[in-house]
TrEMBL record:
PANTHER family listed in its UniProt record: GLYCOSYL HYDROLASE DIGH
One example GO MF annotation: hydrolase activity
Keywords: Hydrolase, Signal
Domain of life: Eukaryota
Identification of the protein by name: Glycosyl hydrolase YngK
InterPro entries: Divisome_Glycosyl_Hydrolase, GH, GHL10
Domain Glycosyl hydrolase-like residues, every copy: 143-406
Keyword flag RNA-binding: no
Xref: SUPFAM superfamilies: (Trans)glycosidases
Length: 462
């Protein structure tokens, strides 16, 4: 740090957003002292904006209705600090006002967290994208702290379309497997110790992370997708029978060799409306529809092609075929295994754009629960999405809305995560799923859940 400014020697990543926001505010206040006034003003305005409560009066009412003594005590602490922060602000002690205002909001947040209850019959899940838990090489520690926070389901990402973090004879093994060993075996052992369900997060079609040789072989064999512009894509084509067989075999291998509770599908779709337009798709589409296609892919392009509607329907059928087949094969292998999926929140737009008709899967009974990825910081939009989803879903299929605590388009504070859980419950959700369990979530969100949302031990009958 010099007179001219500040130099960062590393990319400023979006994890631990609260601490980094404060860090940047401190730098601004140091470099330009005049900034301390608006920073203090903002900190004071934010003191009582906690969760779903709209201001101090609503927060007081919510806390008092909970009847939790510790929550009431935290509320009183927040009030005292609030008055002190305002006094410091009035006397232009802006640095002190900022510090005190933040402490006030932390006390109010604690009161908010403590005022929530644990619903013992709901599914309380977390996605884990790394497949390593929060502590690489130590699944026991991850499982222990998840259980302590009231989580009862872990959805660990253990396989993509061309790579696995476990001892697979169907898919190539990953660098994660080489470095840390069989992650699925370690995860299941730890989960059983702490009474957590394991629903293996299996990414379909997408070849991200697959060995170069594996991808090249798939492409050489005509098994990968092609864009409308003729560009090769690192995705397996869902219309190719051998790709469908690969997905089924890789999933059956999991349920045969590991004591898991379910399979959780992701990327169970096309990458977008720009795919797939490979020659194999052309042959299969013309055979299925008995249409004479002279201009490919122009004749089937969405919105402009003569057969665009037919092609949208045909693509959707390719995705649904795998879901239907997995449902059948999993029921045959083990009737207790649950099949679920992470799906796009905006329906029916996802049917047209990516061939993902998850409402149809639910109505047909192919899935046991779905996790629509309702990643947004806008609570009104979150509510709008979920209300629409509930109206379309059959009552017998559970829905656990996905809450994007650290998603690409959503970075939520702990009280915002709890707020979306509260909204989901009030609207009739069967549970909820948080993205993405990591060290950041471990240090920020889990403690908030442990205070109220997941305080009491869950009933495994959910």
């Amino acid at each position: 740090m010099g007179e001219a400014g500040v130099f960062f020697s590393h990319i400023f990543l979006p994890d631990d957003i609260l601490t980094k926001t404060r860090f940047l505010a401190a730098l601004l206040g140091h470099l330009v002292p005049e900034f301390r006034h608006p920073l203090a003003k903002r900190a004071i305005e934010m003191m009582t904006t906690v969760g779903h409560t709209d201001g101090l009066e609503a927060l007081v009412m919510f806390v008092q209705e909970s009847g939790v003594p510790e929550a009431v005590q935290a509320l009183e602490t927040g009030k005292r600090l609030m008055e002190k922060a305002r006094s410091e602000y009035d006397s232009k002690a802006y640095n002190a006002a900022i510090t005190t205002a933040r402490a006030s909001r932390e006390a109010f947040s604690r009161a908010y967290f403590l005022s929530h209850i644990s619903l013992e019959t709901e599914g309380r899940a977390v996605w884990n994208h790394s497949g390593l838990g929060a502590y690489p090489g130590d699944w026991d520690r991850s499982a222990k702290e998840l259980a302590a926070a009231g989580v009862n389901m872990i959805l660990p990402n253990m396989a993509w379309a061309g790579v696995a973090h476990y001892s697979s004879k169907v898919l190539p093994q990953s660098k994660t497997f080489t470095q840390y060993g069989d992650q699925l075996a370690q995860c299941v052992t730890a989960a059983r110790t702490y009474d957590l369900e394991v629903h293996v997060w299996k990414i379909t079609w997408n070849l991200e992370g697959a060995p170069k040789g594996f991808v090249e072989k798939m492409r050489k064999d005509g098994r990968t997708q092609v864009s409308a512009a003729g560009k090769p894509l690192n995705w397996l084509c869902p219309s190719h029978p051998k790709n469908v067989q690969l997905e089924v075999e890789s999933i059956l291998e999991i349920v045969t060799n590991y004591d898991v509770d379910g399979i959780h599908l992701d990327y169970i779709r096309y990458p977008g409306s720009h795919a797939c337009y490979c020659e194999e798709c052309r042959k299969r589409f013309t055979l299925a529809t008995r249409q004479q296609i002279d201009e490919w892919p122009a004749a089937v392009l969405p919105g402009t092609g003569t057969y665009s509607d037919e092609y949208i329907e045909w693509r959707t059928q390719q995705i649904t075929r795998l879901v239907r087949m997995l449902h059948k094969r999993l029921r045959e292998a083990n009737p207790d295994i649950k099949l679920s999926a992470a799906v796009f929140g905006g329906y029916p737009a996802c049917v047209t754009s990516i061939g993902q008709d998850w409402i149809a899967w639910a109505k047909a009974g192919y899935v046991d629960f779905v996790c629509p990825m309702n990643y947004t910081e806008d609570t009104n939009y979150f509510t709008e999405l979920f209300v629409n989803q509930l109206a379309l879903m059959p009552k017998e299929v559970a829905i656990y809305p996905g809450i994007g605590a650290t998603a690409t388009n959503s970075l939520l504070t702990p009280d915002a995560v709890v707020e979306q859980i509260y909204l989901s419950r009030s609207l009739g959700a069967s549970g909820w799923t948080i993205f993405d369990y990591s060290l950041d979530i471990s240090e920020t969100v889990l403690p908030a859940l442990e205070m109220g949302v997941g305080k009491r031990k869950a009933n495994p009958s959910h």
